[in-house]
Amino acid sequence: MDSRPLDPLDLKLLQALQLDGRAPFSRLGEVLGVSDQTVARRFRRLRTTAGLRVLGMIDEGRLGRVGWIVRLRCTPDVAEQLANALARRPDTSYINLVSGGTEVLCAMRPRSRQDRDELLFDRLQRTPRVISVSAHCLLHVFYGGPLGWLNKVQALDPEQVNALRLPQIDPVGTVTPDKDDEVLLAVLRRDGRATFSELQSATGQSESVVRRRMDRLRSSGTLYFDVQHTAESVGHGVGALLWLTVSPSALSEVGRALAEHPEVSFAAAITGQANLIASVGTPSTGDLYTYLSERIGALDGVQAVETVLTLRQIKQLAYEPTR
User: Fold this and answer.
1) Which residue has the higher pLDDT, 84 or 121?
2) pTM value?
């Protein structure tokens, strides 16, 4: 991957895709003020230089599933092998090697309680050289999921944002996709910009049925499209996970404040000794120090912070073992 930061048009394209991952190149070009051929060329180049992928994601909360952050402490000789094994699971994301290669961090949303217990109480506990396992339930997400970090780059002007932003969704209750929905969602998880003809071929459903199903899944808040890219391409040379211990009375206020910080791509209240977690990206360790001392230090109610640097990311949204 090319580690050079992106130029203004690249950033505009990434933010546009975050707003509407399936917008045609012609529509993107119209909003960005360039030709659709330019958009197509930029898109293809960013796939190579910045790891760009648009993926159809499920808001697991709409299905009644609970998210977890799992910390696995292990000996250095098995950390990468363990991380890659977890990355192959379809219910995991954002798997990082941290702490000098002796710890693996993993986000997961098991499809069922049985799947959760099988992984946490059986497989991981029996894995050789795993020293400890701690699992932290996501109680409330302040930022993340459909709210991707690219919404914070402000590369687009307000008029461009409004032209691409989809109608606001205010989902209520849970939904249960049927088997045909599951097939469609699986295809979109591999390629969120798959054409309707490709979706028709992959699912065996007519194009009109595919369109209706996708519209229903999006309007219910079940399906959204996210953009995967390298952190270095947007100037984030340093990534870290912050485990914050916050006074319960200040938990909501601190969580909402973190959601507004441009450095934060994910923030959630969790179970455990630390009750708030945040994923942050900065250009350098010096910038991370400034963020911790000036932004985090200024938040009332924060009692302690554990800062864990990311050494290597094994998986974001999709596992790509050849990268």
Assistant:
1) 84
2) 0.90
